[in-house]
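Form P-L/3: holo structure prediction, ligand beta-D-glucopyranose.
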Amino acid sequence: MKNSILTCSIILTFLGCSNNKKSDSMIDTKTEAINEKVDSLLSKMTIEEKVGQMNQYNGFWDVTGPSPKDGSAKTKYEHLRKGWVGSMLNVRGTENVKEVQRIAVEETRLGIPLIIGFDVIHGYKTLAPIPLAEAASWDLEVIEKSARVAATEAAASGINWTFAPMVDISRDPRWGRVMEGAGEDPYLGSKIAKARVKGFQGNDLSDDTTIAACAKHFAAYGFSEAGKEYNTVDIGTSTLHNMVLPPFKAAVEAGVKTFMNSFNELNGVPVTGSSFLQRDILKGKWGFDGFVVSDWASINEMISWGHAKDKKEAAKIAATAGSDMDMEGYVYVEELANLVKNGIVKEAILDDAVRRILTVKFELGLFDAPYKYCNEENEKNNIGNKEHHDAVLDVAKKSIVLLKNENKILPLKKKGQKIVLIGDLADDKNSPLGSWRLGSDDNTAVSILEGMKKYSENNLIFKKGVELTKDPVSFTSEININTTDESGIDEAVKAAKSADVIVMVLGEHSFQSGEGRSRTEIGLPGLQQKLLESVYNANKNIVLVLTNGRPLTIEWADKNIPAIVEGWQLGSQTGNAIAQVLYGDYNPSGKLPMTFPRNIGQIPIYYNYKNTGRPNRESHVFWSHYIDSPNTPLYPFGYGLSYTTFKYDNLKVHNGENFSTEDTIKISVTITNTGDYDGKEVAQLYIRDLVGSITRPVRELKGFEMVALKKGESKEIVFNLTKKELGFYNSDGNYVIEAGDFEVYVGGNSATKIQGKFTLN
Ligand code: BGC
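OUTPUT (holo model):
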């Protein structure tokens, strides 16, 4: 075991990092003025009005959780008029928002405006790629821009608070919500969390195109056992502090205004009732001064979990633990005032929660101009405009990952090739929109069929092969891929026989991933595998375009199909983005933000695993492995090809090999474009801390850079490692750096073998 050095100073440094932990001298006059206004308002409020601020109701139209109670609309209007509602979600459109805001501002005793929340997850009306896909761009600038576009459109529709970004790390592709996060890695996840918060909130929250962001779901929701939605989470302190919490901390550092807790329990305590997470870590150690909203009725759910015996107890536990606002749970509004009056919950708890909520409302400028987000002109001009479509197309093409390209089958030729396009998902204008698209209109994406027609002069032949079940595709409906009707397969095979190239678009419909959509099999659903194999038997010249919200198990395709493109669900501009990549107008540059397993049995599989005590095949049987599958994944984290090729060499650790923990360690590498096209490469740097008081992963991403290289061009790139990258959190959640030997790896994915080393003394 190594010595722990620098523990205390590092803890202090890291506490000091939080943007929100302002020292007295940093509190600017604007903040002071807001504090005064909040205090003055708070002093006028009754207990019921305070509880009202902590109460959030769903609107009257869209539903994003179990249906609200019958007759609740009447109650909601009554409560609005009494000042018992602080926020609404799923109310959108300037007219609708104005209606509820007018009641809050003009009909209640104190006229406190509502904060209006909505799930603006990857766009409002103009949709960008699903977040997992965007993460595959590794391009923080375009990710920030995408959130900016989303905020501008949402703000123009009356919304001033998004329930995004979801920063849950997950290693389990069975979990449907991996589509909504940034994948498996806390370093990449933290960078993306910051970019998204910046994009939503901009530099000035009072601007009428910026909205408050919400880091969710605090915490560990992504570690649901067996990938089953809303399930138990049981993880150790090392995983919690090193894998789960860093992106949340990054969001705090980026100044995120709100947090959402979660449906899961963590080691026996539902997180909605966790003082450890919400009071000790978030509001204590990290100094977060925004507010925490519960997830949809997650306060009530503590009763089903068996953590609270009734609503009264649930209200007490949640409020005491630091859940400041109750989303559509009716628990606070029904129980909290009496709990305070009976001395069971301290009024100071209400004051703290309300102070946080009012502060955000002041910062948004809602007290000065409660209807600022209800400008009909903005609604007309700022939603769905060309600039926004251009921006989402840009991020969409950058999110595509080339997984395989044998015999240079890609890019396709724009002329003179007989291309047969197969797969009903290619003709679908709905699935590309992803599963979070309440603000958008159904069937508005550019389909892949449309995109491919537009970008080439080829005579494109299209065959569905296997038809999608065309259920009414609404947010709550079930969608399936045909599992019984094989009648279209023969026709697809016939057409494929005479093709130069076949493009097959297969995968999941977007309603097969997302919340409540966990799967136990993650291959191609329905008859699509059969379709793929049947076409392959007739003509092997296939480009498989995957469209999906999670990593899929496609081992057969990887072995047999010459080209595979990961096309996710890319939002409104899907077809144009895919066509630009297939025809070579854009040379793919995406890299996987999540490992692709070979089979379900390997899950959870991730690149930053521990070595184990028996990592190598020194004995025939007794080593850490499966007897029926390799340990390696199908595609590792960080993996993605280009139409060109890149060579990495000359990795140098500058200034010797011995460093102190205060040093900045400079590492450089030369990258050369050795192929036939100009291209972009995401160069990645990983470290391995060889010996730790808590065992360290075999690889940890600690830097990346996007490098554009012309054909034949070389560039040296430099990474700097500092104590921010070299340490880890111990079991107490304290950041430590330990002396000892490190390996460093640079390359185009997490399995790179290009290696250097250094020692920390
Ligand atoms: C989800 C949240 C979402 C909320 C409001 C919940 O079911 O877990 O992520 O923000 O609904 O729609």
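COMMENT: Residues 1-22, 472-477 have pLDDT under 50 and may be disordered.
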